[in-house]
Each structure stands twice: as structure tokens, then as C-alpha cells.
Design goal:
The chain contains 14 helices and 19 strands. By secondary structure, it is α/β, with parallel strands linked by helices. The protein has three domains: about 5-55, 434 Repressor (Amino-terminal Domain); about 65-225, 3-Layer(bba) Sandwich (Glucose Oxidase, domain 1), CATH 3.50.30; about 235-450, Rossmann fold, CATH 3.40.50. The strands form three sheets. A ten-stranded mixed β-sheet has the order 8-12-11-13-14-19-18-17-15-16, with helices on both faces. Strands 1-2-6-5-4-3-7 form a seven-stranded mixed barrel. Strand 5 (about 150-155), helix 6 (about 170-175) and strand 6 (about 180-185) form a beta-alpha-beta unit.
Length: about 450
């Protein structure tokens, strides 16, 4: 029988002795109690201090099928054995049920854009804002043609839509795209669990027959390898090159068209959001989109004035196996380069730096970032689980932006060539226009080289 968190802390002699004996802070012990579990990274120290086997530190045991709570039609089963019951919505899940990394998003708006952001491939999204579905869905607020996320977790049942732009209820929209969700979950407890213990692997089950094989679901979660080492850009990139001319939305006419571009940009699609392409077009660019696997020769064949490296999912080191040589080939020609999110990380790798996985990632529309050049603080939208290791940047690369949440790198610029990038999403407009200057900076860089 797994030990409860209270049993573990009592065995250690209370919070302060527990912190001292396991080499953590009393704040960490407080978070153990708050989350109701010891994070896996502390298991070895706690096991050594208490004599408990690690199997007893995994938390509460799985319940049996006979213990399904009344009204529950879906379950989120984590690799450590925790089960969150709730009410399923969207599409019923097949076997095997969708599995992925559990993350949380703190944005209060833009759930449709979030769900269709290709950077969420391989993840199940927990929305911390309770009113999901309140503006329905429409044909414009999408960042790609399909839903990249593997599922969603919300607190309250989907809100009825109340917005003049709504054309479809969120539940209907999800069913049409074969995506499942679970409502009625204590999203605060789940978020605390992710915050304190890192993103766990989970399986979201919403079976049509209402039967749950919890042992099999947990085994499926335990067997999933995680995002480290996983190249997901291949799964979300375009299959062939295409041209893009749609520009930013304006009231009341809607999206525009770039009919008189002044420069030609090739955008490498590692999972590009449509609004990034719109911002490039709005800045005066003719945009040609190429697949993530395009070589330097493939890119240069289009004779670009500049090259854009898009956002995308997965581990940058894995995608870098084929992306880095292509980027290095472009840099060697002196062509201006601008990267966002995964594109930022890939540019750093191409310049000789390294990346690492963050403990909990940055996801939401309220992330403060400081521009180290101007001292200005921007409110940004972010969605990444990896970051650039500052200590590995070569002398010719300067950090330009920093996260005010955890001090991680949010931007870089080269001093010996026309290339720069940011970790956050300037096109997402949470500020709402704090970061739009970056697209114009890219065009200005192109103009200086012309």
C-alpha cells in the first residue's frame, strides 16, 4: 500500500527534519503536502531517508473499475498511478487512448488558437481558465488545418457560446476533429502537480462503452518515452512548398491580402502558425513556405531575401538532426534569418549552442519578457518546453531577451551575421502589439543587406 504524504513527512520527523534529511527546502516539503505526492526527482532521497521502497512513494493506488465515481465518463490516468475522473466531451477515444505530456496553459482567451497550434503536438492541455467554450468556434481563429493537441482538460463543463463570430459549439467542433476532452477535473490540483513535479505523462480515456482498464492505461502512460529525443516537426509540417499572401486581420474587413510585396521570405515550416505567416505578409513580404526537411539547397533554390524559422513541437535536438545543417547552409550565404520558438532553438543549435528541457515549460498569454537592449518589458504569449542554454552560446551570439519568470533565455542575436530570434510568440498579440516590431526588424535587416 503506497504511503500517504502525511505518513512520509511524519516518518521524517516533520517538515523541517524532512527538508534537512532529504536535502530540499521546507517550501519543497510544503509543496509535497499541497500536491499530495513526492515528485519523482525526490524519490531517491526520500527512500534513503525513510527506508521506504520507491514503489511506496508513487502516491495513491489506482482504483478499480468498480470504484468509478457516479457520473464519471472519462479519466485522465497518469504514469505515477494518479487518476483524475471527469465527464468526457468531444469525440470518444479509441484503443489505444491518446497519450501525451500533460501541460497547462494560463491564457484566458484563444483556446481555439491554442488547440490548433502545431507546437502542442504530443501534449494534453490543461486549461487553467474555467470558461472554455464561451465564444464557441469559428473558421478564422485557427492556427493550422487540424488539432495538434492530443486532448484537453478543463474544470467546468463547456460553456455555451455567446459571441457573434461563433459558428459551431466547441463540443461539436472537437467531435468533428476526433479530439477528446475531460471536464470536472480539479485543474488547480493538476496544475500544482505539473508545477511542482514537472509535466507527467498521461492517458485521456473517454470510451464509448464506459469501461476503463486502468491498469492498461497506466501501463500505456508509463511506456510512453516522453518528448525528450522526439522529433514531432515531421508530423506537423507541410508536405510540399506553397505560397502565402494572407495578411493580418483588420476591422471590419477581416483578413487582408499582400498584393504588392517588396521582399521574398522563405518560411521553414516546423509547425508554423498561420498568424506568423500573416504577420510576415503584413510586413511586406512574399512568403514561400517549405517543409521542415528542406535542405539548404531546397531553400536557396527559391532565391529568398530572408529566411524565417518557424515554431514547432518536440525536442529541438531531435529536429536539429536535419534542420541544423540546412540552417547553417543558409547562414553561410549571409542571408538574414529570423526564428521564433522552435526556430529560435534551432538557430541556437546551428550557431553551436545547446538546448535543455525546462522543468515545467512556459505556456500562456501572460508571460513577461524583458528586452535587454531597451529595458522594455513585453507581455508575451509562449508555448515551449525546451530552452536555449545560455552558458553554451558562442562569443558571437548575444542574449537579447530574458524571461522575468525564471530567468531563462528568450532571445538572441548574432554580432557577426544578420540573424536573430526570440523564444516567445510576437504574432499572438497578448500585449496586444508589444512584440510586432520584431517582424519589421526582420524586414529592415533584409533591406540593409539588399
Amino acid at each position: 500500500m503506497p504511503a500517504t504524504i502525511d505518513d512520509i513527512i511524519d516518518r521524517l520527523g516533520g517538515p523541517e527534519p524532512a527538508a534537512r534529511l532529504t536535502g530540499v527546502t521546507t517550501e519543497a516539503v510544503r509543496k509535497w503536502r499541497q500536491a499530495g505526492a513526492v515528485p519523482s526527482r525526490h524519490w531517491a532521497a526520500v527512500s534513503a531517508a525513510t527506508g521506504l521502497p520507491m514503489d511506496e512513494l508513487r502516491g495513491e493506488p489506482l482504483v478499480t473499475n468498480g470504484d468509478i465515481p457516479a457520473g464519471a465518463t472519462a479519466a485522465l490516468v497518469l504514469a505515477d498511478g494518479a487518476v483524475f475522473w471527469g465527464r468526457g466531451f468531444g469525440a470518444h477515444t479509441d484503443k489505444p487512448a491518446p497519450v501525451g505530456e500533460i501541460c497547462f496553459n494560463t491564457g484566458m482567451t484563444g483556446y481555439q488558437e491554442t488547440l490548433t497550434d502545431p507546437s502542442y503536438a504530443g501534449q494534453i492541455i490543461t486549461f487553467t481558465f474555467p470558461h472554455i467554450g464561451n465564444v464557441g468556434t469559428n473558421l478564422e481563429d485557427i492556427e493550422s488545418a487540424s488539432v495538434a493537441a492530443r486532448g484537453l482538460v478543463i474544470k467546468q463543463d463547456i460553456t455555451e457560446p455567446s459571441n457573434w463570430r461563433s459558428t459551431l459549439h466547441l463540443d461539436t467542433w472537437l467531435r468533428a476533429r476526433h479530439i477528446a476532452g475531460i471536464a470536472g477535473v480539479d485543474t488547480r490540483a493538476l496544475t500544482v502537480r505539473v508545477r511542482d513535479g514537472g509535466p507527467p505523462t498521461g492517458v485521456l480515456a473517454f470510451p464509448a462503452d464506459g469501461k476503463f482498464d486502468l491498469t492498461a492505461l497506466r501501463a500505456q502512460a508509463e511506456a510512453w518515452p516522453g518528448l525528450e529525443g522526439m522529433d514531432l516537426a515531421r508530423e506537423v509540417t507541410c508536405l510540399q512548398s506553397y505560397d502565402w499572401d494572407e495578411s493580418s486581420r483588420a476591422w471590419p474587413t477581416g483578413f487582408g491580402r499582400q498584393t504588392a510585396p517588396v521582399r521574398h521570405v522563405v518560411a521553414v515550416d516546423y509547425g508554423a502558425k498561420r498568424n506568423i505567416l500573416r504577420c510576415l505578409a503584413a510586413a511586406g513580404c512574399r512568403v514561400t513556405v517549405v517543409p521542415a526537411t528542406a535542405s539548404a539547397e531546397d531553400i536557396l533554390r527559391h532565391q529568398p531575401d530572408g529566411v524565417f524559422l518557424s515554431n514547432g513541437p518536440g525536442d529541438p535536438a531531435a529536429t536539429g538532426e536535419y534542420a541544423v545543417p540546412a540552417i547553417q547552409g543558409v547562414l553561410a550565404k549571409g542571408i538574414p534569418v529570423f526564428g521564433i520558438c522552435l526556430g529560435h532553438q534551432l538557430l541556437a543549435l546551428a550557431l553551436g549552442a545547446k538546448t535543455f528541457k525546462l522543468d515545467r515549460g512556459h505556456r500562456g498569454a501572460n508571460q513577461p519578457v524583458k528586452d535587454l537592449t531597451t529595458g522594455k518589458v513585453e507581455i508575451t504569449a509562449q508555448n515551449h518546453g525546451f530552452a536555449v542554454d545560455l552558458d553554451t552560446l558562442p562569443p558571437s551570439v548575444t542574449p537579447t531577451h530574458v524571461s522575468l519568470f525564471d530567468g531563462s533565455n528568450e532571445g538572441l542575436a548574432c554580432t557577426d551575421r544578420p540573424a536573430f530570434s526570440v523564444q516567445y510568440h510576437p504574432e499572438a498579440s497578448p500585449g496586444p502589439s508589444d512584440s510586432h516590431y520584431l517582424f519589421h526588424r526582420f524586414v529592415e535587416m533584409i533591406e540593409r543587406r539588399a
